[in-house]
């Protein structure tokens, strides 16, 4: 079966932030399960920009940048906990265990993981994968769901 997917063009950085905001708006009911988003794409593609738009929409203020050295940055807004993960500097997939990502596989939690491929099979699987690619000076993105909660996010996303 082919998972549902969506293709978007992102003419500028504001559009990439907007994508993150739209993803936040489309989050399904998380009272029974958490949600995992993988962000893939080359260095500088716009993964962090997208996460920033997502967290801002949920009301996170202040500077939002990649947790390049700590690898995980948690944010709490009301009942929701989001953890922004950047695995670019992960040396070995075995280090994933120490990051305690499993703690976030719980109701009212969202994991946003940049460079999930660096963690090989140790990374929590995606409900939704966002791939951002260079398109000249601009970018394009693909969204693909990998679970039923991921599919409900995409349904809400297109209905917005
Ligand atoms: N759609 C876009 N078009 C042009 N520039 C973009 C777009 N989205 C993001 N950028 C810019 O790309 C740069 C790198 O973005 P960043 O989110 O840090 O990338 P990554 O986390 O994938 O390494 C930033 O300067 C950002 O403003
Ligand atoms: Mg980044």
In words, what does this structure look like?
It is a single chain. The chain has 160 residues and is α/β, with parallel strands linked by helices. Strands 1-7-6-2-5-4-3 form a seven-stranded mixed beta sheet. Helix 1 crosses helix 2. Helix content is 25%, strand content 29%. It binds adenosine-5'-diphosphate and magnesium ion. Magnesium ion is lined by residues 47-48, 66, 86, 114.
| Spatial strand arrangement across the major sheet | 1-7-6-2-5-4-3
The radius of gyration is 14 Å
The assigned structural class equals alpha/beta
Q: Report the mean per-residue pLDDT as an integer.
A: 95
The biggest sheet amounts to: 7 strands, mixed
User: Bound small molecules, which ones?
Assistant: adenosine-5'-diphosphate, magnesium ion
The CATH homologous superfamily name equals P-loop containing nucleotide triphosphate hydrolases
Are there runs of 5+ residues with pLDDT below 50, and where?
Answer: none
Fraction of residues in H or I helices: 25-40%
Strand segment count: 7
Tally of distinct domains: 1
> Remind me, CATH topology?
Rossmann fold
Distance between the termini: 26 Å
Total helices: the number is 4
């Amino acid at each position: 079966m082919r998972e549902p997917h969506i293709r978007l063009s992102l003419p500028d950085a504001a559009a990439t932030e907007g994508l993150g905001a739209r993803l936040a708006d489309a989050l399904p009911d998380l009272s029974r399960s958490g949600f995992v988003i993988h962000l893939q794409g080359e260095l500088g593609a716009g993964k962090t920009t997208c996460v920033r738009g997502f967290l801002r929409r949920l009301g996170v203020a202040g500077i939002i940048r990649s947790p390049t050295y700590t690898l995980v940055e948690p944010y709490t807004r009301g009942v929701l906990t989001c953890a922004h993960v950047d695995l670019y500097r992960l040396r070995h997939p075995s280090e994933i265990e120490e990051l305690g990502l499993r703690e976030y596989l719980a109701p009212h939690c969202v994991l946003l993981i940049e460079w999930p491929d660096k963690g090989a099979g140790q990374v929590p699987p995606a409900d939704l994968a966002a791939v951002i690619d260079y398109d000249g000076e601009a970018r394009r993105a693909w969204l693909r769901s990998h679970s039923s909660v991921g599919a409900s996010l995409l349904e809400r996303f297109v209905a917005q």
